């Protein structure tokens, strides 16, 4: 479930523009080496303009340059502000209407009414039918159905129960039925969601490892251009050329990678926002980035790949028995059965059609008992319908003198081979056939695994089932590998083993016994419905409790890196055109023959510099949507992805500025 | 044109088996060359007190490299400073000034062979025939050793299979690698080349300078002193070891150093032989055919197009003859024996490989030719100097891998070893370094004209100064000439440039390789970046071009490009 939160409204843009101005302080700018150089250049340029004005010299060009430089800074800060604003919007939409909630907090033996905002970690609250759950927490007593649509957008009610793997509840969601005691899991302002908001907002945001590395590279490139520009006056004066210092500042700003430098914070924040909009709460930016590198995903079978309950999928009549007879018998044998398996048989029988549902008088339910391992319906003393495992039914029937046909063994074997569980149906006269119960694989799972595979992620299913069953399900779900007959602790050792081979492993889990594995994995995605221990151990929580959600996280992680890399390439490629615009302009007045280098035939030296600067400033907001959305990730071979990005951002980055600068120059030349 | 193709084809054909041979030389497994060379090497190890079985991590390897260079540097300086009181000085040549001695010592120590003195006149036989020739054998082997260590590091070190993640890796033994490089590669090759050159008439003697009477007794000079000596052996190693410092001042344009077309062909091949062989060696050591193919293709493409540009440039007339009827190729500063094509070929290769020997004066190349020779030095990784050239190439690869890795959405890694902040910080230093040193010194020298002492005004002067520092930083050693460079400023500033241009670009990559070696190896899968394909090759070429273009275009505009445009529009030098 992905929610699109519309946040690019006029108001957000206005607020972000104001916020961007506030970010213009030197201490804030110094965090980003590239933009800091622009900041210093802008200050010097403004001072030079003032100097020109006070000396009574012409100052139009200087004023214009200073203004564009200022706008460049503003746009760069704006991109960060707008990303932050979107993040806030995204997060608050997840935070249901919490402010007005009332809680009934346990105080000794009594419950006192209090404001939800006052709840602390480990407080216990009581929640009844129809009330809102006041805070994130874990059910410690009781069972309830909860409507979590306020957070997940999914309207179907979910079951939450104490002491199970589904004990987690979210603040702001509505209790539909039942009554529970909930232990609050966090102090106010300290929930996962609060932490995530901190991650998108300025102060607490930490750069991710690849972001730091890229910042260092950009700083090195900036240093190179500083040296290039600073040594230029000395060389120029040797050939008796006086350079205009404002032009040099313009040259410097155009050359240093301002495009990526300005957009870098926004790209990082936007990545977190995309995770949030997929209803995933990451505890650190690093976790999201690492997800892009994951190459093995470990999944529990139950509840992840399959629904967890075995469901009836087929009726296989015995030799000489019509299918209708079998369906009818299976229906009677299951109609009183409260287990999910029984219900699914009834459902499948109804779907098959032609049922007689008139309930026989005096019929009596035969409940499942460990000694008989059968359940069914007793119509009269001598008349009954039963279902059970092959052995159990055979025992019963042979006791009663009903023959067991060898054909049955073949049917039973066939079902087991396909990963199903065979239930034999019989009545008082004969063995009627087999109902196949199988784990039903969730819809869409296979497609998602295929996409993960194409992104280089191998999926491994872990199950307690025997090898035959596990193999059949693995094949149907399209996982790459499976571990059968696994014990819970095997997950941890498996993760360690794969990590020792150099793999980066992601683990999806919800149970308390998953906690060590979630903590050990490079990416631990805990289900929000899961236990508190699991949520603490993982580094991400999925509010929708959808295990295949990891795919989205992997994509967000990859997109983060691709967007950064593509924009760095674009930024560097742009410099080629900027050189051809500015270098001839810088020398034009003193060395007229340099105009040969002016391949774009720009209007005048001043218009050339101003056009390049305008391009440099405008490209930042022009790329903001791409930075926020991320470069599109296609499931293709690494080489092909690289080729596409090199073509679009490398070659495009070389060609585009030639065209745009020329166009801007035609406009600018019309005015000066 | 035919000669150029023939020479390059032969160079590649010989380099391939040499590269395969070098894989064996530097492998820790038994090799057929052991039987011949082990006894000799054992004596050497005993003499220098080295246990050949110790293994070194990147720190001890780097330290051994730096210390051995320091030792050699001190010895070299003392010999040059006191050559007048030392033996083997039949012509009674005096001592060098402290700054010239320092520059000369560092210049040869760094495998640069930039000469601010004139060889045959200012150096004794001990200095020239013993010290310099020794350095010409030892220094390329040292850089080759570092290159080999880096390649081992890229594969996780020699103990990759046994070592734990994060444990220091065995990159080999510096002394063993250096000694093997000298004994098994450089000496045998030099012997063969020296013999061929002697057969062509290059002097090979320990006799003092020869006095001859000139043919034209009516001219002012009726008697001439011609210095001779063990020229052939020195020329052989000068070419093979990307040294470049010749016996005679005019280097291989002097008929005694390079007498015949055949000797010229052999000397040209010798410039690129080992650098090309290293490409084949690297691919073999890394056990990656795709990597070899990509490296070879990228370097060959650069090399061939640069040769094409220079040859074209030198086939154009010299602008000074614009007004004259007799136009033709630019013959200024060229031997008529070699002509424009072979001079351009040599000029291109010698600047690509940080060799620096010349058979024509680069100062007199047409501006485009001058620009191309300079580009070869700035890139400094098209074949490149023995050892150091391929290390520079690896640095470019790392940068390209970082960018491409991001663009495919994975933490960048090469051969499963991640490139992270620490490595990028070090790579960043290497990106800034050339600009800082070359542009920094050029600007200072040009800003203080009393220091420059150059013979030309205007653009050409900037060109010369820029060339001198570029050549020093690239450890190339070729000169643009026409520069009065034997002054304290030139000597000292060049010493700094030489040292920074030699040691940081070797030790920093060694550190990077050492750090990367320790990391967990990420298994390769469908999502990982492969470097052995056209897409990566194009990315790499773009990175090499853009980095150098962006760093040096403005300086080139005021230097050679400005000069070219001025010549083209006005026909006179400014």
From TrEMBL, chain A:
Q: State where the protein is found.
A: Cell membrane; Membrane
The record lists Mg(2+) as bound by: 510, 514
GO terms (molecular function) for this protein are: ATP binding; ATP hydrolysis activity; magnesium ion binding; P-type potassium transmembrane transporter activity
Q: How does it sit in the membrane?
A: Multi-pass membrane protein
Where it mainly occurs, coarsely classed, is membrane
- The transmembrane residues are 33-53, 59-78, 212-239, 245-267, 576-596, 608-628, 648-671
Enzyme Commission number(s)? 7.2.2.6
Top class in the EC scheme = translocase
Keywords linked to the UniProt accession: ATP-binding, Cell membrane, Ion transport, Magnesium, Membrane, Metal-binding, Nucleotide-binding, Phosphoprotein, Potassium, Potassium transport, Translocase, Transmembrane, Transmembrane helix, Transport
Classification via SUPFAM superfamilies: Calcium ATPase, transduction domain A, Calcium ATPase, transmembrane domain M, HAD-like, Metal cation-transporting ATPase, ATP-binding domain N
User: Catalytic center at which residues?
Assistant: 300
Q: Which reaction does it catalyse?
A: K(+)(out) + ATP + H2O = K(+)(in) + ADP + phosphate + H(+)
Residue span, P-type ATPase A domain: 107-201
Residues reported to bind ATP:
337, 341, 387
InterPro entries, sorted: ATPase_P-typ_cyto_dom_N, ATPase_P-typ_P_site, ATPase_P-typ_TM_dom_sf, ATPase_P-typ_transduc_dom_A_sf, ATPase_P-type_domA, HAD-like_sf, HAD_sf, P-type_ATPase_bsu_IA
Q: Which PANTHER family match?
A: POTASSIUM-TRANSPORTING ATPASE ATP-BINDING SUBUNIT
Indicate what this protein is called per its UniProt record: Potassium-transporting ATPase ATP-binding subunit
From TrEMBL, chain B:
Q: Which InterPro entries match?
A: KdpA (IPR004623)
Which superkingdom does the taxonomy of this entry point to?
A: Bacteria
Under the GO molecular function aspect, what terms does this record hold? P-type potassium transmembrane transporter activity; potassium ion binding
Name the Pfam families for this protein.
KdpA (PF03814)
Which cellular component terms (GO) are annotated to the entry?
A: plasma membrane
Annotated localization = Cell membrane
The yes or no answer to whether the keyword Transmembrane helix is present is: yes
Q: Where are the transmembrane segments?
A: 6-26, 61-80, 131-153, 174-197, 265-286, 293-312, 382-403, 424-448, 488-513, 534-558
Q: How does it sit in the membrane?
A: Multi-pass membrane protein
User: Which keywords label this protein?
Assistant: Cell membrane, Ion transport, Membrane, Potassium, Potassium transport, Transmembrane, Transmembrane helix, Transport
| Quaternary structure (record) | The system is composed of three essential subunits: KdpA, KdpB and KdpC.
Q: Into which family does the record put it?
A: Belongs to the KdpA family.
Q: What does this protein do?
A: Part of the high-affinity ATP-driven potassium transport (or Kdp) system, which catalyzes the hydrolysis of ATP coupled with the electrogenic transport of potassium into the cytoplasm. This subunit binds the extracellular potassium ions and delivers the ions to the membrane domain of KdpB through an intramembrane tunnel.
Name-wise, this protein is: Potassium-transporting ATPase potassium-binding subunit
| Organism listed in the record | Idiomarina fontislapidosi
* Chain's gene name: kdpA
């Amino acid at each position: 479930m992905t929610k699109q939160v519309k946040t690019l409204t006029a108001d957000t843009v206005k607020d972000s523009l104001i916020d961007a101005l506030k970010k213009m302080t030197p201490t804030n700018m110094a965090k980003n080496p590239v933009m800091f150089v622009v900041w210093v250049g802008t200050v010097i340029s403004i001072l030079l303009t003032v100097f020109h004005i006070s000396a009574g010299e012409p100052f139009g060009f200087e004023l214009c340059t200073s203004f564009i430089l200022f706008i460049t800074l503003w746009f760069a800060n704006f991109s960060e502000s707008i990303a932050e604003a979107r993040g806030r919007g995204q997060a608050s939409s997840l935070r249901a209407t919490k402010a007005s909630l009332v809680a009934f907090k346990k105080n000794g033996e009594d419950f006192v009414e209090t404001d939800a905002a006052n709840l602390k970690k480990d407080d216990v609250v009581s929640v009844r039918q129809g009330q809102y759950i006041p805070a994130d927490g874990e059910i410690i007593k009781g069972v309830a159905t909860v409507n979590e649509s306020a957070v997940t957008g999914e309207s179907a009610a979910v079951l939450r129960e104490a002491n199970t793997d589904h004990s987690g509840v979210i603040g702001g969601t509505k209790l539909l039925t039942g009554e529970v005691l909930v232990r609050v899991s966090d102090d106010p302002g300290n929930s996962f969601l609060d932490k995530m908001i901190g991650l998108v907002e300025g102060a607490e945001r930490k750069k991710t490892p690849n972001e730091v590395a890229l910042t260092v590279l950009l700083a090195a490139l900036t240093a190179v251009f500083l040296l290039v520009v600073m040594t230029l006056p000395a060389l120029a004066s040797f050939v008796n050329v006086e350079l205009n210092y404002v032009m040099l500042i313009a040259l410097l700003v155009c050359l240093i990678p301002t495009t990526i430098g300005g957009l870098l914070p926004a790209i990082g924040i936007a990545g977190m926002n995309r995770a949030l909009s997929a209803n995933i709460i990451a505890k650190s930016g690093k976790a999201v980035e690492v997800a892009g590198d994951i190459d093995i995903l470990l999944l529990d079978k139950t509840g992840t790949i399959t629904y967890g309950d075995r469901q009836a999928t087929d009726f296989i009549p015995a030799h000489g028995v019509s299918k209708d007879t079998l369906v009818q018998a299976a229906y009677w044998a299951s109609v009183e059965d409260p287990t999910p398996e029984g219900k699914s048989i009834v459902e499948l029988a109804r779907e098959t059609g032609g049922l007689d549902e008139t309930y026989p008088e005096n019929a009596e339910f035969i409940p499942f008992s460990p000694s008989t391992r059968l359940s069914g319906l007793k119509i009269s003393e001598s008349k009954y319908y039963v279902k059970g495992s092959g052995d159990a039914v055979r025992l019963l029937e042979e006791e009663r003198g009903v023959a067991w046909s060898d054909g049955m063994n073949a049917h039973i074997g066939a079902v087991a081979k396909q990963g199903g569980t065979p239930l034999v149906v019989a009545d008082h006269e004969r063995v009627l056939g087999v109902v196949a119960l199988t784990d039903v694989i969730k819809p869409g799972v296979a497609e998602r695994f295929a996409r993960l595979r194409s992104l280089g992620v191998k999926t491994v299913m872990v199950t307690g089932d025997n090898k035959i069953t596990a193999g059949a399900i693995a094949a149907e779900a399209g996982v790459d590998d499976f571990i059968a007959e696994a014990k819970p602790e095997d997950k941890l050792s498996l993760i360690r083993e794969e990590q020792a081979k150099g793999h980066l492993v992601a683990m999806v889990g919800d149970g308390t016994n998953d906690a060590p594995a979630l903590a050990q994995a490079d990416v631990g995605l805990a289900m929000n419905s899961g236990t508190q221990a699991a949520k603490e151990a993982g580094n991400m929580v999925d509010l929708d409790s959808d295990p295949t959600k990891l795919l989205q996280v992997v994509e967000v992680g990859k997109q983060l890196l691709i967007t950064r890399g593509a924009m760095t390439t674009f930024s560097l490629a742009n410099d080629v055109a900027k050189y051809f615009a500015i270098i001839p302009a810088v020398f034009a007045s003193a060395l007229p023959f340099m105009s040969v280098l002016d391949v774009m035939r720009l209007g005048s030296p001043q218009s050339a510099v101003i056009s390049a600067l305008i391009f440099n400033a405008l490209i930042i907001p022009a790329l903001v949507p791409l930075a926020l959305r991320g470069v599109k990730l296609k499931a293709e071979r690494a080489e092909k992805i690289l080729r596409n990005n090199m073509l679009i951002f490398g070659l495009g980055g070389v060609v585009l500025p030639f065209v745009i600068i020329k166009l801007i120059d035609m406009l600018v030349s019309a005015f000066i | 044109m035919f000669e150029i193709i023939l020479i390059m084809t032969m160079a590649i054909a010989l380099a391939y088996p040499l590269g395969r041979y070098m894989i064996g030389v530097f492998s820790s497994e038994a090799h057929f060359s052991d039987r011949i060379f082990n006894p000799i090497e054992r004596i050497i190890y005993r003499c220098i007190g080295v246990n050949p079985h110790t293994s070194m991590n990147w720190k001890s390897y780097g330290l051994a490299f730096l210390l051995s260079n320091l030792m050699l540097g001190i010895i070299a300086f003392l010999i040059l400073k006191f050559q007048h009181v030392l033996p083997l000085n039949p012509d009674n040549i005096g001592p060098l000034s402290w700054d010239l001695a320092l520059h000369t010592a560092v210049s040869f120590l760094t495998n640069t062979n930039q000469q601010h003195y004139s060889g045959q006149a200012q150096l004794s036989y001990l200095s020239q025939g013993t010290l310099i020739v020794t350095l010409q054998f030892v220094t390329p082997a040292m850089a080759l050793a570092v290159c080999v260590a880096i390649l081992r590091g890229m594969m996780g070190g020699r103990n990759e299979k046994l070592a734990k993640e994060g444990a220091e890796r065995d990159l080999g033994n510096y002394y063993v690698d250096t000694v093997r490089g000298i004994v098994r590669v450089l000496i045998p090759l030099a012997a063969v080349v020296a013999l061929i050159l002697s057969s062509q008439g290059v002097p090979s003697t320990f006799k003092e300078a020869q006095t001859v009477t000139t043919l034209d007794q009516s001219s002012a000079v009726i008697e001439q002193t011609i210095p001779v000596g063990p020229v052939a052996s020195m020329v052989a190693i000068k070419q093979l070891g990307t040294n470049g410092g010749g016996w005679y001042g005019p280097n291989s344009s002097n008929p005694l150093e390079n007498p015949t077309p055949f000797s010229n062909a052999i000397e040209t091949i010798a410039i690129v032989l080992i650098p090309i062989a290293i490409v084949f060696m690297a691919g073999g050591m890394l056990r990656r055919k795709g990597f070899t193919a990509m490296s070879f293709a990228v370097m060959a493409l650069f090399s061939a197009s640069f040769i094409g540009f220079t040859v074209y440039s030198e086939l154009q007339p010299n602008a000074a003859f614009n007004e004259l009827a007799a136009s033709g190729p630019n013959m200024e500063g060229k031997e008529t024996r070699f002509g424009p094509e072979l001079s351009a070929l040599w000029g291109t290769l010698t600047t690509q490989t940080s060799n620096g020997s010349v058979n024509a004066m680069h100062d007199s190349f047409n501006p485009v030719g001058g620009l191309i020779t300079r580009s070869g030095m700035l890139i400094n990784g098209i074949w490149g100097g023995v050892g150091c050239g391929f290390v520079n190439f690896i640095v470019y690869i790392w940068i390209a891998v970082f960018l491409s890795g991001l663009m495919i959405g994975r933490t960048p890694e090469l051969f499963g070893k991640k490139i992270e902040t620490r490595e990028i910080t070090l790579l960043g230093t290497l990106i800034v370094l050339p600009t800082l040193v070359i542009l920094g010194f050029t600007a200072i020298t040009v800003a203080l004209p009393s220091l420059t002492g150059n013979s030309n005004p205007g653009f050409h002067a900037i060109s010369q100064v820029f060339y001198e520092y570029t050549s020093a930083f690239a450890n190339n050693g070729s000169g643009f000439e026409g520069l009065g460079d034997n002054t304290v400023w030139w000597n000292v500033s060049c010493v700094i440039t030489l040292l920074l241009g030699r040691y940081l670009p070797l030790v920093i990559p060694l550190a990077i390789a050492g750090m990367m070696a320790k990391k967990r190896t990420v298994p390769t899968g469908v999502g990982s970046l492969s470097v052995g394909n056209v897409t990566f090759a194009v990315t790499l070429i773009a990175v090499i071009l853009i980095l150098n273009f962006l760093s040096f275009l403005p300086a080139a505009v005021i230097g050679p490009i400005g000069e070219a445009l001025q010549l083209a529009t006005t026909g006179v030098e400014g």
